[in-house]
Design brief:
This protein is of the alpha/beta class. 42% of the residues lie in helices and 16% in strands. The chain has a 6-stranded mixed beta sheet with strand order 3-4-5-2-1-6.
């Protein structure tokens, strides 16, 4: 995708509040002519009011008639969200009146803002780095407390700062290595070689620490893919309904009632779970049930978490042939209100009853612990890298390992090691946006809503 870098000489405007009727609406202007345009569209006193102060303002049409009245504030560059002169008008939240105000501002010389253009200008003007810009989008789309916490951490620049520290350390190491390359008559001594290797390892450790948050970042943004599986009539659909708090799946004594997968999303102790109820695994009675079982096995292969449900009142069944998966697996013994068969004695499982709701707190705790989503686990991992960050970190890691291999072999190929370190440096620089990433900007900011 080709991006269009905003022209800082233009002034843009957009409605910054969500579509629809509300009590208030906010219209934002940013650019060198923001104040002049606001004067033309209003009673002409915006330029004379102090910066960062609200005052009453009337927006007028070309003939002087009133369109709307509300509060207006102006912000002087660089002390604004975008780093440019900016004006914000807060008026009544009707759909038509808000559009009329925006139309009047556009008639006075502003251009319509594109998706994410205000945040993109903030990045280009040095107000935020690229990770903080992405944090804005994560904050808007956060659907759990932990996701909100991670987004807030990113908006505060935690990921950008950690990346900058690693990058600065790598720059110093590269400078040392290139100084040796420039003076080949000075053989690198063992002490200096050991220091170079130690510095590269320290950066590699930080890269690995950030990569360790990638899975949690994906979970926070996409949810934990949680597959409910087991034999027919053990209570899989009942478990889904109980977790959702509504009758989403049909519950019947007839085996094979669930023929297709059913997917819903919940938040359990702040963890987003994408629950998938599947067909019971057994020898299929017909072609339709066989297809449902095939889909069940496919879902298990792609799961993050598998809730294997069994009937506690029946003898333990023979282990079914389920596909291999790296997912966490929790055994759930349902129907404990009917009594537990002796064959389950000593088996590690969560014991509950979908009929009485007993034991569901224990299930919540086990899910949280198995996914390492407790407060203690997240003390150091408030930063959760996304897919773009992970790609850059993986490329940086590969280059660092290559450079380290060359340096540990005795430093006979310092030029090649320097090339690898520069590659690692560039990959790290992509994360906060310290390299030429014009195409990347187009991809990132296209996900934003207009007015943000």
């Amino acid at each position: 995708m080709t991006s269009v870098v905003p022209d800082s000489r233009t002034t843009i405007a957009a409605i910054a509040t969500a579509p629809g009727v509300g009590a208030l609406s906010l219209i934002r202007l940013s650019g060198p002519d923001a104040v002049r345009i606001a004067d033309l569209a209003s009673d002409g006193r915006v330029s004379g009011q102090p910066a960062r102060h609200l005052r009453h303002c009337v927006i007028r049409d070309a003939s002087g008639g009133t369109i709307d009245d509300g509060l207006i504030a102006r912000f002087e560059a660089p002390h604004s969200q975008t780093g440019e002169d900016a004006v914000e008008f807060t008026g009544h939240g009707g759909i038509l009146v808000t559009r009329e105000v925006l139309q009047r501002i556009l008639e006075c010389g502003a251009l319509p803002a594109g998706p994410g253009e205000f945040t993109q200008r903030a990045f280009l003007n040095g107000r935020i780095d690229l990770t903080q810009a992405e944090g804005v989008m994560d904050l808007i789309s956060a659907q759990s407390r932990l996701a909100l916490r991670a987004a807030r951490s990113q908006m505060e620049g935690v990921l950008g700062k950690r990346t900058a520290v690693a990058r600065d350390a790598l720059l110093e190491t590269l400078a040392h290595l290139e100084a040796w390359i420039d003076f080949p008559e000075e053989d690198i001594d063992p002490k200096s070689g050991a220091q170079l290797c130690s510095s590269v390892r320290a950066v590699l450790d930080e890269v690995d620490a950030l990569l360790a948050t990638a899975d949690q970042g994906r979970v926070l943004r996409e949810g934990v893919r949680t597959v409910i599986t087991g034999e027919p009539n053990v209570g899989k659909s009942s478990l889904l309904n109980r977790l959702l708090g509504c009758e989403r799946a049909i519950v019947s004594e007839t085996a094979g009632t669930t023929r297709d997968t059913i997917e819903e999303t919940i938040h359990l102790r702040g963890i987003p779970l994408r629950l998938v109820d599947t067909a019971g695994v057994r020898d299929a009675a017909d072609q339709v049930e066989a297809e449902g079982i095939r889909r069940t096995l496919h879902q298990i292969e792609s799961a993050d978490l598998v809730l294997a449900v069994a009937d506690a009142s029946r003898p333990m069944p023979a282990m079914s042939a389920l596909p291999e998966t790296a997912a966490n697996r929790i055994l759930v013994l349902n129907k404990c209100d009917l009594g537990e068969d002796a064959s389950w004695q000593g088996v590690d499982a969560v014991r509950l009853s979908c009929a009485t709701s007993a034991g569901f707190d224990g299930l919540s705790d086990r899910i949280r612990d198995s996914l390492h989503f407790g407060e203690v686990d997240w003390g150091e991992h408030a930063v959760a890298v996304n897919a773009r960050h992970r790609d850059s970190l993986m490329r940086s890691r590969g280059a660092l390992l290559a450079a380290l291999g060359l340096l540990e072999s005795g430093g006979h190929d310092p030029e090649l090691a320097a090339i690898d370190l520069r590659e690692a440096l560039d990959a790290l620089g992509e994360i906060p946006g310290r390299v030429d990433t014009e195409d990347l900007l187009g991809v990132i900011f296209s996900r934003f809503c207009i007015g943000k």
